[in-house]
Design brief:
By secondary structure, this protein is mostly helical. It has helices at 9-32, 37-57. The chain is elongated and about 45 Å long. The protein starts with 8 loop residues before the first helix and ends in a 6-residue tail after the last helix.
Length: 63
Protein backbone atom coordinates (compact mmCIF):
# COMPACT_ATOMS: atom_id res chain seq x y z
CA UNK A 1 0.00 0.00 0.00
CA UNK A 2 1.20 3.48 -0.78
CA UNK A 3 2.08 5.81 2.06
CA UNK A 4 0.19 8.62 0.31
CA UNK A 5 -3.32 8.75 1.79
CA UNK A 6 -5.81 11.42 2.72
CA UNK A 7 -6.56 10.84 6.38
CA UNK A 8 -8.23 14.13 7.29
CA UNK A 9 -11.66 14.95 5.82
CA UNK A 10 -10.78 18.65 5.75
CA UNK A 11 -7.96 17.96 3.29
CA UNK A 12 -10.44 16.24 0.98
CA UNK A 13 -12.85 19.15 1.26
CA UNK A 14 -10.03 21.62 0.53
CA UNK A 15 -9.03 19.66 -2.58
CA UNK A 16 -12.66 19.65 -3.74
CA UNK A 17 -13.01 23.41 -3.18
CA UNK A 18 -9.78 24.14 -5.09
CA UNK A 19 -11.03 21.85 -7.89
CA UNK A 20 -14.34 23.71 -8.19
CA UNK A 21 -12.75 27.17 -8.00
CA UNK A 22 -10.09 26.37 -10.60
CA UNK A 23 -12.81 25.08 -12.92
CA UNK A 24 -14.70 28.34 -12.45
CA UNK A 25 -11.55 30.38 -13.13
CA UNK A 26 -10.93 28.31 -16.28
CA UNK A 27 -14.47 28.92 -17.52
CA UNK A 28 -14.39 32.66 -16.75
CA UNK A 29 -11.06 33.14 -18.54
CA UNK A 30 -12.30 31.19 -21.53
CA UNK A 31 -15.42 33.35 -21.79
CA UNK A 32 -13.71 36.73 -21.33
CA UNK A 33 -10.69 36.04 -23.57
CA UNK A 34 -8.50 38.79 -22.16
CA UNK A 35 -4.85 39.36 -23.05
CA UNK A 36 -3.45 36.26 -21.32
CA UNK A 37 -6.51 34.03 -21.39
CA UNK A 38 -4.72 31.01 -22.88
CA UNK A 39 -2.04 30.99 -20.20
CA UNK A 40 -4.62 31.48 -17.45
CA UNK A 41 -6.77 28.67 -18.84
CA UNK A 42 -3.76 26.35 -18.94
CA UNK A 43 -2.81 27.14 -15.34
CA UNK A 44 -6.35 26.76 -14.02
CA UNK A 45 -6.83 23.58 -16.06
CA UNK A 46 -3.65 22.01 -14.73
CA UNK A 47 -4.69 22.79 -11.15
CA UNK A 48 -8.13 21.29 -11.81
CA UNK A 49 -6.62 18.15 -13.35
CA UNK A 50 -4.24 17.68 -10.42
CA UNK A 51 -7.09 18.06 -7.93
CA UNK A 52 -9.24 15.62 -9.88
CA UNK A 53 -6.44 13.06 -10.01
CA UNK A 54 -5.83 13.49 -6.28
CA UNK A 55 -9.51 12.87 -5.54
CA UNK A 56 -9.66 9.92 -7.91
CA UNK A 57 -6.47 8.05 -7.07
CA UNK A 58 -5.39 8.98 -3.53
CA UNK A 59 -7.33 6.82 -1.07
CA UNK A 60 -9.28 8.33 1.79
CA UNK A 61 -8.61 6.40 4.98
CA UNK A 62 -9.99 8.20 8.06
CA UNK A 63 -8.15 7.60 11.32
Amino acid sequence: MSSLVISNPYVGIAILVVFVLSGKVFRDNWKQKGETWKRNCWLAGIVAILCFLAMAFIPFIPH
